[in-house]
Amino acid sequence: MTVTTLEKIPGQAPAPMQPGEPTRRAQRRQLLRRLKNYPALAMGAVLLLFMIVACMLYPLIANLDPYSTDTDVMLLGPSGTHLMGTDNVGRDVTSRVLIGGQVSLTVGFAVAIISGASGFVAGLYAAYYPRVGYVIMRICDGLMAFPAILFGIVLMGAFGQSIQNVILALSVVFFPYVARVVRSSAMTVKGEQFVEVLVNMGASSTRILWGNIARNVISPWLIQVTFIFADAILVEAAMSFIGAGIPAPTPSWGNMLYDARNYLYQAGWMLAFPGAALAITVLGINLFGDGLREWLDPKGRR
User: Fold this and answer.
1) Is residue 245 part of a domain?
2) CB-facing half-sphere around the CA of 143: CA atoms within 13 A
3) How many angstroms separate the Cα of 47 from the Cα of each of 19, 211, 277, 285?
4) Report field, pTM of the whole predicted structure over 0.85
5) Is residue 10 situated within a structural domain?
6) Which domain holds residue 87?
């Protein structure tokens, strides 16, 4: 039996690609071209990813200890041993900034998920059922009558200080903001002609609400949840700064700033590094949310 082998002929063009089979390199180029049109989204994603990796992964790899004290190195400036210096009781500021970032990011993410999910459901039903909506919106008006930080302090006083209670209190604080945005968007969609057609065809309320209206309000809901993420981190830091948030000795950017207030001129790094971490994180989330809004709504680009 004769076996015929196919050899590559010099100068022969490679086999053409099958239609609909883009290469990974082409996909990357297409993604980069799209991201160039949304610089805020790309910059926010980079900043947020950097802070997540630094705060969530690096402490696990480096085995950092934010609670260990050493009176021999109190108020030591940044050095090779302590990259961000030490605080007033000899604790490593780098460890406390990164572990504090874990706490702040966890609180912000959990608040965004809980308030986002509950606000999404409440906003949908408030838009579709007027009587239910009247009750829900009056509850939201009552919750929004107080400043977020003041209401959070009141709830913390009732529940007690712990990370879980901070998440619960801030979820209650930010729930009405999500519910109102979802209700407004859902009422706009409810007035569309296709909803009226579905009603005339005899479609069930559940199908119309969750199969059609819900899918059309995901974009504004997702954008609002992104901003809630940043706001929750800021409010948690403010509450911890005044002693009503994360209890010591658990590190948080807010209580680190509180500890640094008496050493502003003597050890400015105690204030600079947690403040910079807080600013970079909130900036990254806000840029990401702004870019996401432009991505999902190109007509609204500024």
Assistant:
1) yes
2) 21
3) 37, 35, 10, 8
4) no
5) no
6) 40-60+73-300
**For residue 99, which of 288, 252, 290, 245 has the smallest C-alpha distance?**
252
Alpha-carbon distance of 189 to 70, in angstroms, equals: 61
In-domain check, residue 216: yes
Per the structure, the count of domains in the chain is 1
Tokens of 72: 């021999």
Tokens found for residue 222? 């997702």
Q: What pLDDT tens digit does each residue of the chain (302 aa) get?
A: 444 444 444 444 454 545 444 577 776 676 666 666 778 888 888 999 999 998 888 877 777 778 888 778 888 888 878 888 888 888 888 889 999 899 999 999 999 999 999 999 999 999 988 898 899 999 998 888 888 888 888 888 888 888 888 899 899 999 999 999 999 999 988 888 888 888 788 778 788 888 888 888 988 899 999 999 999 999 999 988 888 888 878 888 988 898 888 888 888 888 999 999 999 999 999 999 888 888 876 554 44
Assigned domain for 3 exists: no
- The CATH number that applies at residue 247 is 1.10.3720.10
Angle at CA 98, nearest 5°, toward 92 and 104?
130
